[in-house]
Amino acid sequence: MIRAREVVLATGAHEQPLVFAHNDRPGVMLSGAVRHHLHAHAVVPGRRVVVATATDDGYRTALDLARAGVEVPAVVDARTRPGPAAAVAEAAGIEVLIGHAPLTVVGKHGVRGLEIGHLGAEHRQLVRADAVAVSGGFAPALHLASQSGARPVFDARIGAFVPGPPVQHERSAGAARGVFDLAGCLEDGRRAGIDAAEAAGFASPDLPALPPVAAGEEAPFAPRHVPADGGEAFVDLQNDVTVADLRLAVQEGYGRTEHAKRYTTLGMATDQGKTSGLNGLAVLAAAKGCDSGELAPTTFRPPYTPVAVAAFAGHERGVDYQPVRRTAMHRAHERLGAIFGEAGHWLRPRCYPRGDESLMEAAAREAIAVRAGVGLCDVSTLGKIEIRGPDARELLNRVYVNAWSKLAVGKARYGLMLREDGIALDDGTTTCLADDHFLMSTTTANAAKVLQHLEFLHQTAWPELDVALCSATEQWCATALAGPRSRDVLGLVLDGADVSNAALPFMGVLEATAGGAPVRVFRISFSGELAYELACPWGYGEALWERVLRAGAAFDITPYGTEALAILRIEKGHPAGQEFDGRTTAGDLGMARLVSAKKRCVGRTLAERAGLADPERPALVGLAPVDTDQQLRGGAHLVEDPADARTATDLGWTSSVHWSPHVGAWIALAFVAGGLERWRGRRLWAVYPLKDEAVEVEVRAPCFVDPEGVRPRG
After folding, report:
1. Are 215 and 88 part of one and the same domain?
2. Is residue 299 part of a domain?
3. What does the pLDDT read at residue 333?
4. CA 306, CA 270: separation in Å to the nearest integer?
5. What angle is formed at CA 518 by the lines to CA 494 and CA 550, rounded to 5 degrees?
6. β strands within 183-258, DSSP E
7. What is the pLDDT of residue 276?
């Protein structure tokens, strides 16, 4: 929860519909909605659109439609003195009918025309059209101000209610308080921000000058037209409240707004008067023989934006708020005293503390055990996708930046995947089990996202590829066996399989059994040590885990969790979740050489944009504090001068940090402008304003342990 000293409400305004017979027909839309569909989605509601308005906003829609090639037979303006927009529309060849209002839509299942009439006259005419855009003015969105205690006040200038004097530390600005022209909104927002800052105890900010904006000239607002009888005229389109319903409410003695609301359901549910309030008051006022401003709007119920009831209930459900997923080895982890953490919906062991060890002490001990002996980690949560078919290799070639055509059966390869915009999506290893059968591994967080990405591409971009995709994440559990003694333990786990370096080389795959259970052994390493991943069908997972623990007892095998895993991968310089934050490219991650120049792939073209290929982009580096007793923090910003730490001097940020027992200090992976080529061996400052900290750091290569990569190949 955030408690603010002062609040500025800039909630804007709601466009109001017009009330006329059969205004609920498909094809009758708000003017602003028509314009949004045109500009945001290149969609128009019809080929011949008539605009009915009481403001200049309707003219903007008419002109935009005409420029898009849509025929606009007329702008029907209920005002008697239109603004300059009317002359602009006429100059564009659009007929403007001043002092006219819509009476009824012609057409039962859609719009075939709009019957209009001159206000105060009996004459009617039909405008042929297949859609109607309506604009009845704007009502400030004063819901939040009203809920804070400010009473609405009627403003005859705009024919709507605006927030009254505030009773709490809040103020409204711009359209939310009836200022609709752009120049006025900008100045009003500027003034509200300065006032709020001063009221909160801050010095008046030195803000730059506002950009010059041409002053708008809006004609006076036309009083709301209340149609005569003849056809259902809807006031509340969400709750099906008509003019007749409200007139009946007055006749029955329910003329007060709160009474009429409950008699007719006007403004109930999610509308809360957003598009029905002003028109409802106009109809009630006409029926009672008074002005709209004499009636108070109904109470605006929170929340302003609708929230599903289930969301409120969910917070009171504890762990039942979302599904909890446990791996096949979960009970074994509990027996070992694991401390669990959430990884998406999964529960994963963070560490296995002994005695009174803290989480950090346990993680350091586990990481040391992996580097010096052998460790065991549950990696079942990694995504697994089966890819089968004669075009499986071609699919991999198109989604990964590196080449896959020549990957031999029984071998695995690391791959990097980009989004369509050239930003890194995910990484992992993919194994060739047969010429037409591959097993892709993804990160835990992106398992579903990557499968969705592949399915989308297969179904829409490359339907000609003969390939099938299937998630196998829950069908196969996996255990990582890592450390210089891992081969010794593996030999005891498997049933007589040859696990020598020649038989099972680095990035090799072996099909074997362990106690009669089928096991796939992948010689891949995330820790930077000699390592293997043992995958077996889910039902064998706990038994395999216990078998590995028994076999490794003679080598003092140590289970390790995600905290030690983080230490190991940061020491090795492996980018992971924090580095794949939706902003980084292959070049940023130090993987530019992985991108094949001999083929195209998803994201390759847009990754070559000047902005993404700029050598000045923040790129991956390693950091170590000059004073090894100082702590680094994730999210700290990198600057040359800690006394001048601001946006303009910001050079980058730390993405992953941890205490390293092998370096004997806190270390970090970070992104710094210009990367290692510019900053290697130089010093920067990692500033963390939340704790008012500044730590001097030395920039070095991101790999802190075994930079030659000898250990995993030993």
Report:
1. no
2. no
3. 97
4. 6
5. 40
6. 234-236, 241-242
7. 87
Claim to verify: residue 362 and residue 489 sit in the same structural domain: yes
Low-confidence ranges of the chain (pLDDT < 50): none
Beta strand 618-625 with 517-522: parallel, antiparallel or unpaired?
unpaired
Q: Is residue 598 part of a domain?
A: no
Write out the E strands in 525-660: 531-537, 558-559, 618-625, 637-639, 652-660
CA 435 – CA 408 distance, rounded (Å)? 8
Q: What is the pLDDT of residues 593-638, one digit of tens each?
A: 999 989 999 999 999 999 999 999 999 999 999 999 999 999 999 9
Domain that holds residue 654: 615-708
Which residues lie closer than 8 Å to 553 by C-beta, 6 or more apart? none
CA dihedral 134, 136, 139, 143 (to 10 degrees): -50
Q: In whole angstroms, how far apart are CA 54 and each of 80, 97, 221, 241?
A: 10, 11, 7, 22
CA dist 110 and 45 (Å) reads: 11
Q: String of b and e for 7-44 (b: at least 16 CB within 10 Å)?
A: bbbbbebbbbbbbbbbbebebbbbbbebbeebeeeeeb
Burial of residue 294, with CB atoms counted within 10 A of its CB: 0-12 exposed, 13-18 middle, 19 or more buried: exposed
In this structure, are strands 558-559 and 375-378 parallel, antiparallel, or unpaired? parallel
Q: Do 375 and 480 belong to one domain?
A: yes
First and final C-alpha spacing in the chain: 53
Distances (CA, A) of 169 to 6, 55, 166, 195, 417: 5, 33, 7, 11, 49
In three-state secondary structure terms, 661 is coil
> What's 426's domain CATH number?
3.30.70.1400
Q: What is the Cα–Cα distance from 565 to 573, expressed in whole angstroms?
A: 12
Considering the domain architecture, whether residues 65 and 115 belong to the same structural domain is answered as: yes
